[in-house]
Design goal:
Blueprint: E1 4-22, E2 25-39, E3 44-49, H1 62-77, H2 85-92, H3 99-117, H4 121-125, E4 131-133, E5 135-138, H5 146-159, E6 163-167, H6 174-183, E7 189-192, H7 202-206, E8 216-217, H8 225-234, E9 239-241, H9 248-256, E10 262-265, H10 267-270, H11 273-286, E11 290-292, H12 299-308, E12 341-343, H13 356-362, E13 363-370
Parallel strand pairs: 5-6, 6-7, 7-8, 8-9, 9-10, 10-11
Antiparallel strand pairs: 1-2, 1-13, 2-3, 4-12
Helix pairs in contact: 1-3, 2-3, 5-6, 9-11
The protein binds 2-succinylbenzoate (OSB) and magnesium ion.
The site of magnesium ion has 7 residues, from loops.
Length: 374
């Protein structure tokens, strides 16, 4: 079997169509690290690292991901150019933390391996759908006005999104949810707090129960599983975990202790698509619905997420929005919403490639790591 010859790292700067404000900060552009795994036969596997520029969502950040990949992960996982993603996974597990950086390396290898084999990622993971239902994650308006929120959500409803998720934080919660529910009485609606509340805020979260929410995502700090379990007894809205779920074991624990009745699976957060599939399998066995989260991915990360979202346990619409929700010009041919759904790529591997001219234009830094020299 062919081996990897080199790993290329590309860093691009890509502007968002509008600022994305959450309880942990505001993003106006994305600083995206792409990993390209090149085989001796010239096949390239691609992956997107979802770490943000600063450690606001998790402890990872782009400069740290570049460093840990170049100095530790690549030398440990692929010094011999192995193209076997399971070998890469096992080797990466010998190092602690850095799931987003690990996921990007493992996924680039997985993509190169699947392309060499001619199999799509969706088929490899066990997809049962050709298209996936899409939701949209709506930030806190920069001007903090309900009118701006109504206008933004109106555009997404018009575009056909099948579910709306509102970012909330103390002071931007009940009134925002009420306004959207009054304007669209039947739209599937949920909230995401990104850890902004405390155990003492149960009454605020309970005040949103009357609005028929699908779930509230990560209301409390990521390490507070007990707090989430206590909260789940106080509110009618199902509790979903995002940041707290970093592995199969944490998913198992959260489910067993009733800290979550729904799980958001984000491949970057859990260390890749192999771990994501295992979490999916566990949740399916336990009867816990899952959905695919997002990190404002370009078409590279989106392609792989859409493949994952086609697995049978992904029964809720994901944060797998169209390219146009994020970027005026995506780095791949754009993902376009059709009747509120995205089509699952069927070509080998993740099924899409960066458009060379766009990649060139947006690139701020790149490096080639020759595996003969690590
Ligand atoms: O918590 O789900 C989150 C984006 C960046 C970091 C964290 C989150 C998000 C989103 C956007 O909600 C999801 C998307 O549309 O990609
Ligand atoms: Mg979230």
């Amino acid at each position: 079997m062919s081996r990897l010859a080199e790993i290329r790292l590309h860093r691009i700067e890509i502007p968002l169509v509008r600022p994305f404000r959450t309880s942990f900060g505001t993003q106006e552009t994305r600083d995206v690290l792409l990993v390209q795994a090149v085989t001796q036969d010239g096949v390239s596997g691609w992956a997107e690292c979802v770490a943000m520029e600063w450690p606001g969502y998790s402890s990872e950040y782009v400069d740290g991901a570049v460093d840990v990949l170049a100095e530790h992960l690549i030398p440990v996982a692929v010094p011999d150019g192995t193209l076997d993603p399971h070998v890469v996974n096992r080797r990466l597990n010998r190092l602690m933390g850095h799931p987003m950086a690990k996921a990007s390396l493992e996924t680039a290898v997985l993509d190169a391996w699947l392309r060499t084999d001619g199999q799509s990622l969706a088929s490899y993971l066990g997809a049962v759908r050709a298209e996936v239902d899409c939701g949209v994650s709506v930030g806190i308006p920069v001007d903090e006005s309900i009118d701006s929120l109504l206008e933004e959500v109106g555009g997404y409803v018009e575009a056909g999104y099948r579910r709306v998720k509102l970012k909330i934080q103390p002071g931007w919660d009940v009134q925002a949810v009420r306004a959207i529910r009054e304007a669209w009485p039947a739209i599937p609606l949920q909230t995401d707090a990104n850890q902004a509340y405390t155990r003492a805020d149960g009454h605020v979260l309970a005040a949103m129960d009357p609005f028929d929410l699908l779930l509230v995502e990560q209301p409390l700090p990521e390490d507070d599983l007990l707090g989430h379990a206590l909260l789940a007894e106080q509110i009618a809205t199902p509790v979903c975990l995002d940041e707290s779920i970093i592995s199969v074991a944490t998913a198992d624990t959260a489910i067993a202790f009733k800290a979550a009745s729904i799980i958001n699976i984000k491949p970057g957060r859990v260390g890749g698509y192999l771990e994501s599939r295992e979490i999916h399998d566990l949740c399916l066995e336990r009867g816990v619905p899952v959905w695919c989260g997002g990190m404002l991915e370009t078409g590279i990360g989106r392609a792989a997420n859409v493949a994952l979202a086609a697995l049978p346990g992904f029964t809720l619409p994901g944060d797998t929005s169209a390219s146009s929700r994020y970027y005026a010009f995506d780095i791949t041919p754009p993902f376009v919403l059709d009747d509120g759904r995205l089509r699952v790529p069927t070509a080998p591997g993740i099924g899409v490639d960066p458009v060379p001219a766009i990649l060139d234009e947006l690139t701020t830094w790149s490096a080639v790591i020759d595996l003969a020299s690590v």
